[in-house]
Structure formats: structure tokens, C-alpha cells
Design brief:
This protein has one helix and four strands. It has one helix spanning 43-60; strands at 61-65, 73-75, 79-81, 87-91. The protein is globular. 0% of the residues are buried.
């Protein structure tokens, strides 16, 4: 949690900004699968699967955030939003 919210590594770390991953990042600053000899053995396959699913969804739907949501962050083994993130999906067809 500390690395993901470090302002020295991320510009506006508390802001939801997927575009931050379009630029090169500091090695070791994004660790969703752990690091070192004990990291997840399925990391590469999981990343490929996530990209394929995301591409398929983006081709099928136009997405926008539901306005005026209260984003409450939570932390446990992983971190995320307490009530999730509401997104409107509009069919592209």
C-alpha cells in the first residue's frame, strides 16, 4: 500500500488515473503480483488475460464513470474501493 501511494513514485497517487501507466514507471513501484523469488508464477498469463478481456470490453462498450460517486479507499491484503467503482457501459453497436 505504501509503494502504491508514494508521491515520490506517482503523481497524485490518490487520484484514479489509468493513464499513468502509459508512461514508463520506476521498476518495483507497481507490485500487484509480489516481487523476487516468491512472486506469482501465473503473473505473465494473468497479465495477458487481463489485457485481452479489457480490449474485448473496450471494443464492445463505451464506458464512463457514474458522476458524483464517493470513492472510499480500503486496505487489507490488497487495496481498492470500499463500495466499488460504478461505470456506465454503452453498447457501441
Amino acid at each position: 500500500f505504501c509503494i502504491a501511494n508514494d508521491p515520490a513514485l506517482w503523481e497524485e497517487p490518490q487520484k484514479f488515473n489509468p493513464d499513468r501507466f502509459t508512461k514508463p514507471i520506476v521498476p518495483g513501484s507497481f507490485l500487484p503480483f509480489g516481487d523476487g523469488p516468491m512472486n506469482c508464477i501465473g503473473q505473465k498469463m494473468a497479465m495477458i488475460e487481463m489485457k485481452v478481456v479489457l480490449i474485448r470490453l473496450m471494443l464492445a462498450f463505451r464506458m464512463e464513470l457514474v458522476p458524483n460517486q464517493e470513492l472510499i479507499y480500503r486496505t487489507s491484503v490488497t487495496h481498492g474501493l470500499k463500495d466499488g467503482l460504478l461505470i456506465l457501459c454503452h453498447n457501441r453497436k
